[in-house]
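Handoff note, outgoing to incoming analyst
You'll be picking up this chain. Sequence as last confirmed:
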Amino acid sequence: MTKIDDINARILRELRRDGRISNLILAERVGLSPSACLRRVQEMERSGLIKGYRAVLDPAQLGIGFTAYVTVGLNTHTKASQEAFERAVARAPQVTECHNITGMVEYLLRVECADLAAYKFWHTDVLGTLPQVQSITTFVVMGSPKDDRA
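Most recent structure output, in case you need it:
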């Protein structure tokens, strides 16, 4: 396991802001030599602390104009029911995140669609037809003043 000291924390903060930052600039920002900085980044990659790098896409340019968080309650609380639900959700391109949670329901989904009509179709004809689903509650995203997902 990689130790997260102050310098590693600063490296991770910079990489979260810009995963394509050059090692030279990264080293300068965190106060290390380029070789020491590269060794630290490579160690964090090797240990699995840094799992990968992603491109942050503009939803509007992808034709995504509707985002919602959806809670889903299952009608049976068995492993088989959860696994079947998770398999179905994995096949749905509209679902960009699926979290098994505690509380009144079992799942929290992030759903992205072209528009409300596309969401309604997915809600009714896909999610609503799954035999494991008992309840669905939708929370429409009106804006995202902070979103650090990358």
